[in-house]
């Protein structure tokens, strides 16, 4: 796979880590299409706009429709960044069935469906890159996030199993596990919560979306061709390799 020119599809690409990844991959010379619920194009400094398709990764029909649109308009996808995700936090005893089902359907089942949908052209081309977006929470656990942690931990098993299925076809599947990153979600936290979180991070700061994006950029480049089934933490030392 060339480091430049491949078509990357990034779900949840309209903000935060997804938008930073779109910027990084565009700067690296890749063609990029993002997927988001709104379907609005992304404005980044490198280009006038990054094209977008509407997608709900928790819905199988929406995934099929969106990827078909990408393929028909821009060509086969050689890089998939399954970044879209949701949280529905609550202690398990108070958690509704819908909160469990929607979180797992979006974060885990949606990512698996995305990978399945893009695999055939990757196998035919004998190259491809898939990156699942997990979380330090999926490795360490977090009270009030049983559903979210389970969905993110499941991505590790999915990536490693898929690596054994298609690794011989020049396709890599890896997992990136961010810690607490400076996004809209963390910006909404109150100061006491922010201070408590910072006290658990050896680096004593939040990560930047661009720091996660650069790891993804490496994994999808030629330099990452011999890395597959790996879990790469980007968490300031919080997970300590779990």
List low-pLDDT spans: none
The main sheet comes to: 7 strands, parallel
Which radius of gyration do the C-alpha atoms yield?
A: 17 Å
CATH topology: Rossmann fold
> How much is the average pLDDT?
92
Strand order of the largest sheet: 5-2-1-6-7-8-9
The topology string of helices and strands comes to: EHEEEEHEHEHHEHHHE
Measured distance between first and last alpha carbons: 30 Å
Strand fraction equals: 15-25%
In total, how many beta strands?
9
Fraction of residues in helices? Answer: 40-55%
Name of the CATH architecture? 3-Layer(aba) Sandwich
CATH class value: Alpha Beta
Q: How many helix segments? A: 8
Integer tally of domains: 1
CATH level-four homologous superfamily name: NAD(P)-binding Rossmann-like Domain
What is the overall shape? Answer: globular
């Amino acid at each position: 796979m060339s480091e430049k020119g491949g078509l990357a599809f990034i779900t949840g690409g309209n903000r935060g880590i997804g938008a930073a990844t779109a910027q990084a991959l565009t700067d690296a010379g890749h063609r990029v299409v993002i997927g988001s619920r709104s379907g609005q194009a992304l404005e980044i400094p490198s280009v006038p706009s990054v094209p977008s398709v509407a997608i709900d990764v928790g819905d199988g029909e929406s995934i099929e429709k969106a990827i078909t649109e990408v393929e028909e308009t821009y060509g086969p996808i050689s890089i998939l960044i399954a970044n879209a995700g949701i949280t529905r936090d609550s202690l398990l005893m108070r958690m509704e069935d819908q909160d469990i089902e929607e979180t797992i359907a979006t974060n885990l089942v949606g990512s698996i469906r995305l990978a399945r949908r893009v695999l055939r052209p990757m196998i035919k081309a004998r190259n491809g890159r898939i990156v699942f977006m997990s979380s330090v929470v999926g490795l360490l656990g977090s009270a009030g996030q049983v559903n979210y942690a389970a969905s993110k931990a499941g991505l590790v098993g999915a990536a490693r199993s898929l690596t054994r299925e298609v690794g011989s076809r020049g396709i890599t599947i890896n997992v990136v596990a961010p810690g607490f990153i400076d996004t809209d979600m963390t910006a909404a936290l109150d100061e006491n919560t922010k201070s408590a979180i910072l006290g658990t991070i050896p680096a004593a700061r939040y990560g930047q979306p661009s720091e996660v994006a650069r790891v993804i950029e490496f994994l999808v480049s030629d330099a990452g061709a011999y890395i597959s089934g790996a879990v790469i933490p980007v968490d300031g030392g919080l997970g300590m390799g779990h």
